[in-house]
Fold:
Amino acid sequence: MQLEESKMSVMRGQRFHLQTDLPRWVGGWLLLGMWWLLVGLAASPVGSKVWNPGKPYHDSLIVLFMAPALWWVWKRRGEFGRRLISGVDGRLLLVFLAWAGLSATWSNYGHAGDMVFNAVYILLFVVVWAAVVAGNPQWFRELLFWAAIGLALVALGAVTIFPSRVLHTLSWQEEGRVVAFGALDNPNLAAFAYGAAIVWLAQSAVRERWKHVVQILSLIVMAVFVVLTYCRSAWLAILVAQACMLIATRHGHVKLRAFAILVVSVAAVAFGGWRYVEERGMSYRPQIFEQAKAWIRAHPWRGLGEGSHYTIQVADQTWTHSHNVFTHTAIMVGIPGMLVWVALWIVVGWRGWLFRHLTTGRCLLALWVFATVAFQFDAPELMQKPSVEWFLGWLPVAMSMGLSWSIRDSQRDRGTEVRA
Structure:
């Protein structure tokens, strides 16, 4: 019987199902790898290299995620390929990744193969997560829920031991800005990752009372962590996302959580938070933007090439990126490449809006709004190994694509047409 199901699962047009596509142990292995891809970003050991503290995490994903993911994609390669090119988001994704990989050949980085590997890695991530969203939506929702719980436990540990930790970058300790571990050994990146977890967990619907209690406690812990990072852009992104969901959703429990977060935020601003924002000012963002525009004007069509090194200097401060995903992308791959990314991003947001009545669609919309705001201030590098940018950029793309595939499967089953 299992053999017959396995044969049926690889027929053209068949839905993706982990339980029929792969042996049980491989499916479980893949789900563990997907969970670790989210949680391990904050929980993995901090590597010895200051410039790459997440190396142990990246190495572990080769076994935990890439190996079973490649198995699944190879087994269903025909179906993955057909679905990828059948939708506008899939075609835009392929164009963007192909152009980014090609641009690495004229970059000043000197290792074009690394950029091509990253492009393939991103494509693997997007299609595999999309397949889980489409074929196993309940498993995907559980995966997001338990990933948020795992991140909350890490946040609790990070806040508890922070005073006694010895960090790679002592300035964070001197400023009292909390960080997590592994690849999130940085307050801004940690705030963005945890902000993303807050907004998707706040949209999750749970029925069991004990799960609801765990959900609320986890939201509180992660909110405290984000506050203690003193990352103003993450604070703003969370507020905008919750305000949007307060207006967009019709679900009472979601509105209640969004309203509670907004009330607490207003109280925090009233009792001193706004003075902290004023003291830190604009953090040179207008000057950085002006220099970013100069780099774009100098290389408008091809860009510097993906992976290129460039610097932006204001007063005595020097940065290696533009603190903005859209300008950084234009600097790397030119204005045409950036416009392809923007088109893809608009498709993702529109699909989240269309399907906001679904739990996955609601999580997608909230995450898209959060990321859109966060992208204006930091987390600029989309084309790299798993990082906080994957939480903000590629996870929403995968969720959107998975929703599209799921709707098309429903269309075919019912013989009707719906917007996808």
Remarks:
- The two ends are 34 Å apart (CA to CA).
- The beta strands are 312-314, 317-319.
